[in-house]
Amino acid sequence: MCVDADSGQQAPLAPYVFSVIGDTPRIKPELFTSIVEINTEIHTSTNSAMQELLDLYKQVDVVLQNQNGALLSSGTHPVSHWRDQEVSDDPRYYQLLKRLQWVARRFNICGIHTHIGMPDGDNCIKVMNHLLPIMPVFLAISANSPFWHGEKTGLAASRIKIFEGLSQGGMPFYFADWQDFEHCTQRLMATGSIGSVRDIWWEMRPHPDFGTLEIRIGDMPASFDDTAAYVAYARAEAMAAIGHEEPLKVHPSLIRENRWRACRYGIRGTIIDPFSEELIPVLDWLEKRLDQLAAYGIDDNELQLVARQISYWRTNGGGADSQRELYNTTDDFSAMVRAMRELDGW
Protein backbone atom coordinates (compact mmCIF):
# COMPACT_ATOMS: atom_id res chain seq x y z
CA MET A 1 0.00 0.00 0.00
CA CYS A 2 1.16 3.55 -0.78
CA VAL A 3 0.86 5.78 2.28
CA ASP A 4 1.60 9.36 3.21
CA ALA A 5 4.82 9.39 5.24
CA ASP A 6 3.38 11.81 7.83
CA SER A 7 -0.28 10.88 8.31
CA GLY A 8 0.11 7.18 7.48
CA GLN A 9 -3.10 7.33 5.42
CA GLN A 10 -3.30 5.57 2.06
CA ALA A 11 -2.33 7.93 -0.76
CA PRO A 12 -3.15 7.68 -4.52
CA LEU A 13 0.50 7.64 -5.54
CA ALA A 14 0.65 4.55 -7.76
CA PRO A 15 0.14 6.55 -11.02
CA TYR A 16 3.13 8.69 -10.07
CA VAL A 17 5.21 5.55 -9.50
CA PHE A 18 4.34 4.26 -12.99
CA SER A 19 5.05 7.64 -14.58
CA VAL A 20 8.59 7.48 -13.20
CA ILE A 21 9.33 3.76 -13.56
CA GLY A 22 7.52 3.19 -16.85
CA ASP A 23 5.83 0.06 -18.18
CA THR A 24 7.25 -3.09 -16.59
CA PRO A 25 5.74 -6.50 -15.78
CA ARG A 26 7.49 -6.43 -12.39
CA ILE A 27 5.66 -3.35 -11.02
CA LYS A 28 1.99 -3.07 -11.98
CA PRO A 29 -1.27 -1.25 -11.15
CA GLU A 30 -3.92 -2.70 -8.89
CA LEU A 31 -7.63 -1.95 -8.43
CA PHE A 32 -6.93 1.22 -6.43
CA THR A 33 -4.41 3.96 -7.13
CA SER A 34 -3.10 3.63 -3.57
CA ILE A 35 -1.86 0.06 -4.15
CA VAL A 36 1.10 -1.23 -6.18
CA GLU A 37 1.60 -4.84 -7.24
CA ILE A 38 5.20 -6.04 -7.14
CA ASN A 39 6.14 -9.43 -8.58
CA THR A 40 9.32 -11.31 -9.36
CA GLU A 41 10.75 -13.28 -12.22
CA ILE A 42 10.93 -17.09 -11.96
CA HIS A 43 13.35 -18.30 -9.29
CA THR A 44 14.62 -21.66 -8.09
CA SER A 45 15.16 -20.68 -4.45
CA THR A 46 13.36 -18.55 -1.91
CA ASN A 47 16.47 -16.48 -1.18
CA SER A 48 16.90 -15.42 -4.80
CA ALA A 49 13.21 -14.56 -5.12
CA MET A 50 13.35 -12.52 -1.93
CA GLN A 51 16.42 -10.62 -3.12
CA GLU A 52 14.60 -9.53 -6.27
CA LEU A 53 11.49 -8.67 -4.29
CA LEU A 54 13.61 -6.54 -1.95
CA ASP A 55 15.22 -4.72 -4.89
CA LEU A 56 11.81 -4.00 -6.44
CA TYR A 57 10.39 -2.85 -3.10
CA LYS A 58 13.27 -0.42 -2.60
CA GLN A 59 12.91 0.86 -6.16
CA VAL A 60 9.25 1.78 -5.57
CA ASP A 61 9.91 3.15 -2.09
CA VAL A 62 12.64 5.51 -3.38
CA VAL A 63 10.23 6.89 -6.02
CA LEU A 64 7.51 7.39 -3.41
CA GLN A 65 9.87 9.40 -1.20
CA ASN A 66 9.80 12.15 -3.85
CA GLN A 67 6.11 12.59 -3.01
CA ASN A 68 6.50 12.21 0.76
CA GLY A 69 5.17 8.68 0.37
CA ALA A 70 6.20 5.21 1.48
CA LEU A 71 5.16 1.57 1.20
CA LEU A 72 3.26 -0.32 3.90
CA SER A 73 3.12 -4.12 4.17
CA SER A 74 -0.23 -5.15 5.64
CA GLY A 75 -3.29 -7.18 4.72
CA THR A 76 -5.55 -4.21 5.40
CA HIS A 77 -4.77 -0.58 6.18
CA PRO A 78 -5.37 0.01 9.89
CA VAL A 79 -7.58 3.06 9.35
CA SER A 80 -8.00 4.21 5.71
CA HIS A 81 -11.48 3.55 4.28
CA TRP A 82 -12.26 1.81 0.99
CA ARG A 83 -14.74 4.59 0.11
CA ASP A 84 -11.84 7.05 -0.08
CA GLN A 85 -9.78 5.03 -2.57
CA GLU A 86 -9.59 6.03 -6.25
CA VAL A 87 -10.11 3.30 -8.85
CA SER A 88 -7.24 2.77 -11.30
CA ASP A 89 -7.87 3.79 -14.92
CA ASP A 90 -8.17 0.33 -16.42
CA PRO A 91 -11.20 -1.06 -18.33
CA ARG A 92 -10.89 -4.44 -16.60
CA TYR A 93 -11.26 -2.85 -13.17
CA TYR A 94 -14.32 -0.87 -14.22
CA GLN A 95 -15.88 -4.04 -15.63
CA LEU A 96 -15.08 -5.79 -12.36
CA LEU A 97 -16.80 -3.03 -10.36
CA LYS A 98 -19.81 -3.04 -12.67
CA ARG A 99 -20.26 -6.77 -12.17
CA LEU A 100 -19.41 -7.19 -8.48
CA GLN A 101 -20.55 -3.78 -7.20
CA TRP A 102 -20.11 -3.22 -3.44
CA VAL A 103 -18.17 -6.46 -3.00
CA ALA A 104 -15.39 -5.29 -5.36
CA ARG A 105 -15.50 -1.70 -4.13
CA ARG A 106 -14.47 -2.90 -0.65
CA PHE A 107 -11.50 -4.78 -2.08
CA ASN A 108 -8.96 -2.50 -0.39
CA ILE A 109 -6.80 -5.41 0.74
CA CYS A 110 -3.33 -6.78 0.05
CA GLY A 111 -2.23 -10.41 -0.11
CA ILE A 112 0.79 -12.44 -1.10
CA HIS A 113 0.34 -14.68 -4.15
CA THR A 114 2.96 -17.41 -4.44
CA HIS A 115 3.25 -19.17 -7.81
CA ILE A 116 4.95 -22.57 -7.80
CA GLY A 117 5.84 -24.16 -11.12
CA MET A 118 4.18 -27.49 -11.90
CA PRO A 119 5.43 -30.20 -14.29
CA ASP A 120 1.96 -30.79 -15.78
CA GLY A 121 -1.75 -30.34 -15.14
CA ASP A 122 -2.43 -33.60 -13.33
CA ASN A 123 0.47 -32.97 -10.94
CA CYS A 124 -0.87 -29.48 -10.32
CA ILE A 125 -4.21 -30.93 -9.23
CA LYS A 126 -2.46 -33.56 -7.11
CA VAL A 127 -0.49 -30.83 -5.30
CA MET A 128 -3.58 -28.66 -4.85
CA ASN A 129 -5.46 -31.60 -3.28
CA HIS A 130 -2.44 -32.24 -1.05
CA LEU A 131 -2.28 -28.62 0.13
CA LEU A 132 -6.00 -28.13 0.74
CA PRO A 133 -5.96 -29.48 4.33
CA ILE A 134 -3.00 -27.28 5.33
CA MET A 135 -4.14 -24.03 3.64
CA PRO A 136 -5.20 -22.62 7.04
CA VAL A 137 -1.57 -22.78 8.20
CA PHE A 138 -0.57 -20.48 5.33
CA LEU A 139 -3.18 -18.02 6.55
CA ALA A 140 -2.15 -18.32 10.19
CA ILE A 141 1.54 -17.55 9.62
CA SER A 142 0.79 -14.56 7.39
CA ALA A 143 -2.13 -13.11 9.42
CA ASN A 144 -1.59 -9.35 9.36
CA SER A 145 -4.94 -7.55 9.16
CA PRO A 146 -6.43 -7.07 12.65
CA PHE A 147 -7.92 -3.62 11.89
CA TRP A 148 -10.59 -2.51 9.43
CA HIS A 149 -11.34 1.22 9.08
CA GLY A 150 -9.87 1.95 12.50
CA GLU A 151 -11.91 -0.77 14.21
CA LYS A 152 -10.38 -3.56 16.27
CA THR A 153 -11.95 -6.53 14.52
CA GLY A 154 -10.80 -9.13 17.05
CA LEU A 155 -9.53 -11.12 14.06
CA ALA A 156 -5.92 -11.76 13.15
CA ALA A 157 -6.78 -11.81 9.44
CA SER A 158 -9.86 -9.72 8.64
CA ARG A 159 -8.75 -9.47 4.99
CA ILE A 160 -9.90 -13.05 4.34
CA LYS A 161 -13.49 -12.11 5.23
CA ILE A 162 -13.44 -9.50 2.45
CA PHE A 163 -11.68 -11.82 0.01
CA GLU A 164 -14.23 -14.61 0.43
CA GLY A 165 -17.09 -12.31 -0.66
CA LEU A 166 -16.07 -12.55 -4.32
CA SER A 167 -18.31 -14.56 -6.62
CA GLN A 168 -15.62 -17.22 -7.06
CA GLY A 169 -13.84 -16.56 -3.76
CA GLY A 170 -13.14 -18.77 -0.78
CA MET A 171 -11.62 -22.23 -0.59
CA PRO A 172 -11.05 -24.30 -3.72
CA PHE A 173 -12.34 -27.83 -4.16
CA TYR A 174 -10.92 -31.31 -4.49
CA PHE A 175 -10.59 -32.34 -8.14
CA ALA A 176 -10.06 -35.80 -9.60
CA ASP A 177 -7.53 -34.66 -12.20
CA TRP A 178 -6.78 -31.84 -14.65
CA GLN A 179 -9.69 -32.82 -16.90
CA ASP A 180 -12.04 -32.42 -13.94
CA PHE A 181 -10.70 -28.90 -13.36
CA GLU A 182 -11.07 -28.10 -17.07
CA HIS A 183 -14.71 -29.21 -16.99
CA CYS A 184 -15.29 -26.92 -14.00
CA THR A 185 -13.79 -23.86 -15.71
CA GLN A 186 -15.55 -24.60 -19.01
CA ARG A 187 -18.89 -24.83 -17.22
CA LEU A 188 -18.28 -21.52 -15.44
CA MET A 189 -17.33 -19.84 -18.72
CA ALA A 190 -20.23 -21.36 -20.69
CA THR A 191 -22.73 -20.05 -18.12
CA GLY A 192 -21.23 -16.55 -18.10
CA SER A 193 -20.05 -16.96 -14.50
CA ILE A 194 -16.45 -16.06 -15.43
CA GLY A 195 -14.78 -14.53 -18.47
CA SER A 196 -11.55 -16.49 -18.06
CA VAL A 197 -9.58 -18.48 -15.50
CA ARG A 198 -8.37 -15.12 -14.13
CA ASP A 199 -11.88 -14.60 -12.73
CA ILE A 200 -11.52 -17.63 -10.44
CA TRP A 201 -10.46 -16.05 -7.14
CA TRP A 202 -10.16 -19.15 -4.99
CA GLU A 203 -7.58 -18.95 -2.21
CA MET A 204 -5.53 -21.44 -4.22
CA ARG A 205 -5.89 -22.11 -7.92
CA PRO A 206 -4.10 -23.56 -10.96
CA HIS A 207 -2.84 -20.85 -13.31
CA PRO A 208 -2.67 -22.42 -16.79
CA ASP A 209 -1.13 -19.30 -18.40
CA PHE A 210 1.93 -19.60 -16.16
CA GLY A 211 2.00 -23.36 -15.58
CA THR A 212 1.82 -22.79 -11.84
CA LEU A 213 -0.18 -23.50 -8.73
CA GLU A 214 -0.97 -20.13 -7.19
CA ILE A 215 -1.41 -19.95 -3.41
CA ARG A 216 -3.42 -16.79 -2.64
CA ILE A 217 -4.77 -17.25 0.87
CA GLY A 218 -2.07 -15.30 2.74
CA ASP A 219 -2.22 -11.72 3.99
CA MET A 220 0.66 -9.53 2.87
CA PRO A 221 3.08 -10.47 5.67
CA ALA A 222 4.34 -7.85 8.10
CA SER A 223 8.06 -8.13 7.39
CA PHE A 224 10.72 -9.31 4.99
CA ASP A 225 11.50 -12.32 7.21
CA ASP A 226 7.82 -13.26 7.57
CA THR A 227 7.49 -13.12 3.79
CA ALA A 228 10.57 -15.28 3.23
CA ALA A 229 9.29 -17.89 5.70
CA TYR A 230 5.88 -17.94 4.03
CA VAL A 231 7.32 -18.39 0.53
CA ALA A 232 9.79 -21.07 1.67
CA TYR A 233 7.08 -23.03 3.45
CA ALA A 234 4.63 -22.88 0.53
CA ARG A 235 7.37 -23.97 -1.86
CA ALA A 236 8.49 -26.83 0.41
CA GLU A 237 4.97 -28.23 0.77
CA ALA A 238 4.35 -28.09 -2.98
CA MET A 239 7.65 -29.75 -3.86
CA ALA A 240 7.09 -32.49 -1.30
CA ALA A 241 3.62 -33.16 -2.67
CA ILE A 242 4.89 -33.66 -6.23
CA GLY A 243 7.09 -36.56 -5.19
CA HIS A 244 4.72 -38.39 -2.85
CA GLU A 245 1.41 -40.13 -2.86
CA GLU A 246 -1.66 -37.97 -2.45
CA PRO A 247 -2.91 -38.17 1.17
CA LEU A 248 -6.40 -39.16 2.14
CA LYS A 249 -8.93 -36.39 1.58
CA VAL A 250 -9.80 -34.35 4.65
CA HIS A 251 -13.43 -33.35 5.04
CA PRO A 252 -14.00 -29.71 4.00
CA SER A 253 -15.76 -29.01 7.31
CA LEU A 254 -12.49 -29.59 9.17
CA ILE A 255 -10.55 -27.42 6.72
CA ARG A 256 -13.17 -24.68 7.06
CA GLU A 257 -12.95 -24.79 10.86
CA ASN A 258 -9.17 -24.51 10.79
CA ARG A 259 -9.46 -21.64 8.31
CA TRP A 260 -11.70 -19.82 10.77
CA ARG A 261 -9.27 -20.49 13.65
CA ALA A 262 -6.41 -19.09 11.56
CA CYS A 263 -8.51 -16.04 10.68
CA ARG A 264 -9.44 -15.45 14.31
CA TYR A 265 -6.21 -16.25 16.16
CA GLY A 266 -3.36 -16.33 13.60
CA ILE A 267 -0.20 -18.04 14.82
CA ARG A 268 -1.45 -17.90 18.42
CA GLY A 269 -4.26 -20.28 17.51
CA THR A 270 -4.84 -23.98 18.07
CA ILE A 271 -5.90 -26.02 15.05
CA ILE A 272 -7.28 -29.48 14.52
CA ASP A 273 -4.52 -31.62 13.05
CA PRO A 274 -6.08 -32.47 9.67
CA PHE A 275 -4.63 -35.97 9.71
CA SER A 276 -4.90 -37.07 13.37
CA GLU A 277 -7.81 -34.75 14.30
CA GLU A 278 -6.06 -33.86 17.57
CA LEU A 279 -5.90 -30.27 18.83
CA ILE A 280 -2.45 -28.71 18.50
CA PRO A 281 -1.04 -25.14 18.55
CA VAL A 282 -0.27 -23.87 15.04
CA LEU A 283 3.45 -23.38 15.66
CA ASP A 284 3.82 -26.82 17.25
CA TRP A 285 2.14 -28.36 14.21
CA LEU A 286 4.38 -26.41 11.85
CA GLU A 287 7.51 -27.42 13.75
CA LYS A 288 6.57 -31.09 13.47
CA ARG A 289 5.72 -30.60 9.82
CA LEU A 290 9.19 -29.23 9.06
CA ASP A 291 10.68 -32.50 10.35
CA GLN A 292 8.45 -34.42 7.95
CA LEU A 293 9.41 -32.16 5.05
CA ALA A 294 13.10 -32.68 5.87
CA ALA A 295 12.51 -36.44 5.65
CA TYR A 296 11.02 -35.85 2.17
CA GLY A 297 14.36 -34.37 1.08
CA ILE A 298 13.41 -30.68 0.98
CA ASP A 299 16.44 -28.34 0.93
CA ASP A 300 17.47 -27.53 4.49
CA ASN A 301 18.23 -23.91 3.50
CA GLU A 302 14.54 -23.49 2.69
CA LEU A 303 13.34 -25.15 5.87
CA GLN A 304 15.69 -23.05 8.00
CA LEU A 305 13.99 -19.87 6.75
CA VAL A 306 10.79 -21.21 8.32
CA ALA A 307 12.40 -22.66 11.46
CA ARG A 308 14.16 -19.40 12.35
CA GLN A 309 10.91 -17.50 12.01
CA ILE A 310 9.04 -19.99 14.19
CA SER A 311 11.45 -19.10 16.99
CA TYR A 312 10.79 -15.41 16.38
CA TRP A 313 7.00 -15.89 16.29
CA ARG A 314 7.03 -17.82 19.57
CA THR A 315 8.62 -14.85 21.31
CA ASN A 316 7.18 -11.90 19.42
CA GLY A 317 3.99 -13.09 17.77
CA GLY A 318 3.04 -12.48 14.15
CA GLY A 319 2.06 -9.42 12.15
CA ALA A 320 -1.38 -9.11 13.71
CA ASP A 321 0.12 -9.27 17.22
CA SER A 322 2.65 -6.60 16.28
CA GLN A 323 -0.04 -4.27 14.95
CA ARG A 324 -2.13 -4.64 18.10
CA GLU A 325 0.87 -4.04 20.35
CA LEU A 326 1.85 -0.92 18.42
CA TYR A 327 -1.68 0.43 18.64
CA ASN A 328 -1.89 -0.24 22.37
CA THR A 329 1.48 1.45 22.84
CA THR A 330 0.84 4.53 20.69
CA ASP A 331 -2.98 4.78 20.65
CA ASP A 332 -2.44 6.79 17.48
CA PHE A 333 -2.82 5.29 14.03
CA SER A 334 -0.41 7.65 12.25
CA ALA A 335 2.34 6.84 14.77
CA MET A 336 1.41 3.17 14.53
CA VAL A 337 1.79 3.12 10.73
CA ARG A 338 5.18 4.84 10.98
CA ALA A 339 6.29 2.22 13.51
CA MET A 340 5.01 -0.60 11.27
CA ARG A 341 7.13 0.72 8.42
CA GLU A 342 10.21 0.97 10.66
CA LEU A 343 9.82 -2.64 11.85
CA ASP A 344 9.03 -4.32 8.52
CA GLY A 345 12.66 -5.06 7.59
CA TRP A 346 12.28 -4.04 3.96
UniProtKB/TrEMBL annotation:
Its EC number is 6.3.2.2. The keyword Cell membrane does not apply. InterPro entries: GCL_type2/YbdK_subfam, GCS2, Gln_synth/guanido_kin_cat_dom, YbdK. Signal peptide: none annotated. It catalyses: L-cysteine + L-glutamate + ATP = gamma-L-glutamyl-L-cysteine + ADP + phosphate + H(+). The keyword Nucleotide-binding applies. One of its GO terms (molecular function) is ATP binding. It is an enzyme of class 6 (ligase). Transmembrane segments: none annotated. This is Putative glutamate--cysteine ligase 2. It comes from Mariprofundus micogutta. The lineage of its organism: Bacteria, Pseudomonadati, Pseudomonadota, Candidatius Mariprofundia, Mariprofundales.
